[in-house]
């Protein structure tokens, strides 16, 4: 009995143990399945489908290849929201960085009076210290704040060309924002005047490497116009502006529209500036231009708040009175209108005295006509010599009596107006002053009109026929780099720079051609030129290379001594390596002994296959023009 009781009790405990094991196993599977499903579901919601989830008891295993370290950490965080973070086992890998698309490398260069700040991402392969030193050198030692990050990824070939161009541009810009990307540079800066704006734009665009996209946005303050001037004329049915000023874009638009309604054709240059005497300027200008159109001719001149309207000769008085009376009523109170109806011509009237000043294209000034006194003649002579070159003024005017009292003012004002021209003439009479000619200044007509209105009075009658010529503009008229090289080639096709035998010294006959070449290069501005020296094959190769380098250096130094800016020029000796003729005859050897001027440009190169960045150009050298110079006619190298 006792034995069977023991077996019964033991069997009960054994059965209970089996049931407990079965229940525990089932519970573990339920917990594992729940954890796996919950974590898998949450990861899918977050878009992390690249993860593999498994569970073993209370532990949850995450496997798979994460796109980045940040994504791996995010997956662990998501799993930790479902189960205890201590139960999450990380078995994930990180995707190979070589297979990830490279980031966008870019640098923002900010320069002001306090220094330079650099912000952005640069390649780890870039020499950071040299880059910072180049920045400081380009900005004359300005303090550089380095806020750059670096990443070890491939970079497009256009990156280096963009960085080098940005460094060069920084040297010209005391205040600027320069954005640098592979193959692209964007420059935002400001200038102190419209003239400086144009000069900056021209300079920044002249040295752009091939394949590099450059955008330049130069803002300039509005000019101060004193006096605030507008002059509109209708002569022989042709309408034009001699000067046009406006205080706002809206006023500018309304003034031009009124002028077109009065007969103006083509483009109208109306300057928006500061110094307007009243906000009602635009409205007054529109009314006056409309009135002139109704008269069918004549001129209207604004000098600040003074308005002078001169009707065409022969206008009926009734029509003149109606139009002028209506204009006078429409004008704001601040404006003062002076209207003139010229009297008809009278036969047998006395000859009108006149004074004529002419300026030739060579800068010679001739003064003739009538002056009221010897003292005025001396004053005119001194004024002209001060305004122009003293050796270029020739006075043929004679002294007569009976001239108007305002004659000295009219003559001196005419001479001052002549100074705005490159060539032309000024004719002064008691009732009119005429300025004609050509100029390299776009605003010359407006400046002359303002001068005459200020000096002679708003009611004075004057005519301005001045033509702007881009070739005369000291900035816009600069030759292109290709044109510079072509001009040098034209000189070299006729004459040579000779060297002393076996020497790098330019002989005495070379000064004239060096002067002519220097005159061309001074007009060309900042362009990149290589001065190459070449020899024939006679003599040892090392000696020829040394001699050619010395001759190239001599030409470079000769240009520098003639005040040519040579900072962007290089001198290189090629020796006998690049002949242009055979060395078996004296004529061929003579042709091979030469100096060549070549324009240096950049060559576009394709992007790396795996860069993922926009294509650009890596700066190199491309021959755009060539000027050949023989070193001697009969020497041996």
**CATH architectural name of the largest domain:** 2-Layer Sandwich
The number of strands is: 29
The overall average pLDDT, rounded, is 84
Classified by CATH, the class of the largest domain is: Alpha Beta
Structural overview:
The chain is α/β, with parallel strands linked by helices. The chain has 5 domains: 2-98, Histidine-containing Protein, Chain: A (2-Layer Sandwich); 106-219, hypothetical protein tt1634 (3-Layer(aba) Sandwich); 229-340, hypothetical protein tt1634 (3-Layer(aba) Sandwich); 355-472, 3-Layer(aba) Sandwich (hypothetical protein tt1634), CATH 3.40.1520; 481-630, OmpA-like domain (60s Ribosomal Protein L30, Chain: A). 36% of the residues lie in helices and 26% in strands. Helix 6 (249-261) runs parallel beside helix 7 (281-295) and helix 7 (281-295) runs antiparallel to helix 8. It is flat. 33% of the residues are buried. Residues 604-637 have low confidence and may be disordered.
